[in-house]
Specification:
This protein has 210 residues and is an alpha/beta fold. The chain is built from 7 helices and 8 strands, in the order βααβαβββαββαβαα. Helix 2 crosses helix 7.
């Protein structure tokens, strides 16, 4: 039995996709294999919470893991987090989470998951466009690609330095004219979620993790 636990924010839980987002697509794929393969057993848990930063995720991670992990089974933890950390706050002229804190939080997240003997994977961030500078539903804040890329690069550098798996999404979206993959300037549309799903499922298959 393999358990895949996916942690993140609104993009993880599937905002703006009629099919439920990339995690739901991954679950559907695994469910189909569960039904068709006698020796295949894989459960996918979507643990995304809208608005979460690494701070909020750290507050709930251990409890979520403790209630879902069986140490006798294979566990994969996928972190898709950092977009909200990179928000620019206009009033204070600062970021939601400062880079040095963000880097420390990445280490804490990985450490907690590894304590439960989980295989850790970090997913890269998705680019944004001008529709969220400022954010329509939070006009005192902005998403800007200069900060999204900065945080994405920090995630990648952290993974390389700690020999943790990293799946790039940022460059993939940029090469595909990312504005056509976004519903509201930050959340992927169905085509965007499909692209993320393909990247994740291909990585899992290539590395024989499922």
């Amino acid at each position: 039995m393999t358990h895949i636990l996916v942690f993140g924010a609104s993009i993880t839980w599937g905002a703006w996709d009629r099919e439920g987002g990339w995690v739901q697509r991954l679950r559907r794929l695994m469910d189909e294999r569960n039904l068709s393969g006698k020796d295949f057993h894989c459960l996918v848990y979507n643990l995304g919470v809208s608005g979460d930063t690494t701070r909020e995720l750290l507050g709930r991670l251990e409890s979520e893991l403790r209630h879902r992990i069986d140490e006798e089974e294979n566990t994969i933890v996928i972190f898709s987090i950092g977009m909200n950390d990179s928000q620019f706050i206009r009033e204070s002229n600062s970021l939601m989470v400062f880079p040095d804190e963000f880097q420390k939080n990445l280490g804490k997240l990985a450490h907690i998951a590894q304590r439960f003997h989980a295989r850790v994977i970090f997913l890269g961030l998705t680019p944004v466009d001008e529709r969220v500078d400022p954010i329509q539903w939070a006009p005192d804040r902005s998403y800007r690609n200069e900060y999204v890329k900065q945080f994405n690069d920090m995630i990648e550098k952290f993974c390389i330095g700690n020999k943790i798996d990293f799946i790039d999404i940022f460059e993939s979206f940029m090469q595909a004219k990312h504005n056509k993959l976004l519903e509201d300037g930050v959340h992927p549309n169905s085509k965007g979620h499909e692209r993320i799903f393909r990247a994740v499922s291909d990585f899992l298959a290539k590395n024989r993790l499922v």
